[in-house]
Amino acid sequence: MKIPFIELKELLTEYNAVLHKAQTNTFFTVDTDLQHNEIENVAALLKKMSKEKKQSIKEQNETKANLLLCLGFAANAVQEELRMIISLKTNEAEAAWNCLINAQEMVAAVMRNHPFGADYLEGYGYKLQGYETLLFPKMTFSSAGFTIKSSQCSICKAPYANCDHIKGNAYMGQMCTEIIQKIERFEEVSIVDHPENKRCRILSYSEGNKRIDALTHREITD
Ligand SMILES: [Zn+2]
């Protein structure tokens, strides 16, 4: 990937080095303290990137601001991958699942918005998908249908239905989201294979008269 912003050269060199080192530690067998250190190293890098992004917004350089947003998200994804592994080691299955989904969503957001194309992340996306199928039982997802009465655009603060911004797209270094303010009514909850949000999953199932946790297969007693 060729980046046209010469002023970012030093930061991007550091970015590549920090991310490379963090990724050499995204293995289950690696010492947990070392993995915590890597999360902090990436956090320090993200601080510098955020400063640079603020400067780009000041300069009204949307391409640069969106580039920094995307690189930041990719770094966040590696942090979440490390957190997932640590959570698995400490028997925190739900936290591990949520970290994995965070990482997947961040990579998807980068793929959609990277101003110079993010094909280089395709392999990483497959790796995250691989974790989902190899490390976790197959989850059943649900989707809630409801009518939104009012919602706001996170970028321009206008009613979402009336503005031209599209949720999931980046504008001047910010991701557009639809902030739901009022729900008119819930319509249905359905079981879906490809949910919009993989955090909406069936948490437990019954086995005889027992409730079983869908992730850990432990009996739920309280
Ligand atoms: Zn808007």
What would you note in describing this structure?
The protein has 222 residues and is of the alpha+beta class. Helix content is 47%, strand content 18%. It is built from five helices and six strands, in the order αααααββββββ. It has helices at 9-23, 32-58, 62-89, 93-113, 122-135, and strands at 141-153, 170-171, 174-175, 178-192, 204-207, 210-213. A two-stranded antiparallel sheet has the order 1-4. A two-stranded antiparallel ribbon has the order 2-3. A hairpin with a 2-residue loop joins strand 5 and strand 6. Helix 1 runs antiparallel to helix 2 (32-58) and helix 4 (93-113) packs antiparallel against helix 5. The chain is flat and about 65 Å long. The model has no long low-confidence stretch (mean pLDDT 95). It binds zinc ion. Zinc ion (ZN) binds at residues 153, 155-156, 158, 163, 165. The site of zinc ion has 6 residues, from loops.
Give the helix/strand layout.
Elements (H helix, E strand, L loop, with lengths): L8 H15 L8 H27 L3 H28 L3 H21 L8 H14 L5 E13 L16 E2 L2 E2 L2 E15 L11 E4 L2 E4 L9
Helix pairs in contact: 1-2, 2-3, 3-4, 4-5
The protein binds zinc ion.
